[in-house]
Amino acid sequence: MEGIRVKCFIFILSLVVFILIWEYIHEIRRFVFILPTIKSKYKPTSMLVSLNSITRIKNSEHFAVSAFIDHRIGEAIRVISIIKRDSKQSLYCVYGNSSHHWRFSKAEVEIHTDHFGFPFAATDLLCHGWRTQDATHVAVTTNAEVSNVPNATFLPIKNRVHGESFKFNFTVCVSNLFGSYNNVLQFAQTMEMYKLLGVQRVVIYNTSCGPDLEKLLQYYKKEGILEIVPWPIDQFLTPSSGWNFQMHGGDLHYYGQLVTLNECIYRNMYRSKYVLLNDMDEIIMPYKHKNLESLMDALQQEHKNVGVFYIENHIFPKTLFDQSGKFHRPEWVNISGINIMEHIYREPDRKNVYNPKKMIVNPRNMFQTSVHSSLNHIGGECSVPNDVCRIVHVRTPLQASLPKEKLFVDTRVWDFEKDLVPNVTFALKSSGLL
What we know:
The chain is α/β, with parallel strands linked by helices. It has helices at 2-31, 184-197, 211-223, 245-248, 257-267, 292-302, 417-430, and strands at residues 32-34, 48-49, 55-56, 63-70, 76-84, 92-96, 103-106, 108-111, 120-127, 137-141, 153-158, 168-177, 201-206, 226-230, 272-277, 282-286, 306-317, 345-346, 357-361, 366-369, 374-377, 380-383, 389-395, 408-409. It folds into 2 domains: 40-158, Immunoglobulin-like, CATH 2.60.40; 168-430, Spore Coat Polysaccharide Biosynthesis Protein SpsA, Chain A (Alpha-Beta Complex), CATH 3.90.550. The chain has 7 helices and 24 strands. The strands form 4 sheets. Strands 1, 2, 3, 4, 5, 6, 7, 8, 9, 10 and 11 form an 11-stranded mixed sheet that branches. Strands 12, 13, 14, 15, 16, 17, 19, 22 and 23 form a 9-stranded mixed sheet that branches. The protein has a two-stranded antiparallel sheet with strand order 18-24. The radius of gyration is 26 Å and the shape is globular.
């Protein structure tokens, strides 16, 4: 009897092991297909490699933007993409390098939850499989046929080397310039202000800008602080100039703002210790610290496991001016744009009205972001008190009916006048605008 029990136990155990092995093989076969028939003639040197910031996925209505190794999820390849949400089309990754055979895997499609009702949405295509960590290029295709590989357009895979030594401490990601944006003076003041606060890099996605601002962009690019990413989204889709599909229409939210913010996070994941996500007319301004480095040192000391810091937006109406005329500089009079140093009146918070925030993030903690909040991240998050840090946002007022007496006088920007004023003038002269 004891022998029968042992035999039954061995049979059941063997059956369980067989089922587990079968399931494992089935999963591997489902995601990864080794293609030994693709020989060296399909090496990257002979393939079509896109160096553009937007690449159409052939035989689809979708677009690929850029590709990165994500070391946090098993060395997967993450392709930042723009996907038409109602498409049921399967997508596949083909990846490899000059030393290994090319492999297919079915793409895992993660459409970001914040798409504001627009037909197209920021999306992550995740490519899982063998030796993804060795891949140098990836293409997205609509089927897993070997014959499609020579016609596929490949993207170079970035972030293949990673570590904890960063080229920059602070990088600002500016999502979009569009509509022939030409706010030259405010742009120069914001750039010079950020330099004084300790920012070493600004990344801008440029759809269109005015001729004077183009000169300023080229100056800062030559200086080394500015990285300009061409963003011709209007050549592929009808982008919306607003955030609400019902109100503004179009194919994609706000010229692809959500796509560019996420792309910028991955672009700077191992280049920058922190990334600031905000618009060009906004300055994330410390009020109790002299610069961003001392601010973040204090915040991280207090919040050790936090990687997402929310900063409140505060409106400085461009319609109200400092009466002293102290910064109505004659050399700036003919420069287009807003002079932020003349606008020192800050609107009060409105009770029961949502005040949007922007973020300072540890990019290595981020998976997906929206404009005003993180969608998926590692670790905690923290709302920074507005007496410690707030956004200085000079723009059209939101409370235009309030008299000046009901607004706060906030001259924080003036604390930097000794360096800010001559630095702005120097940048304008160097750009050929003065």
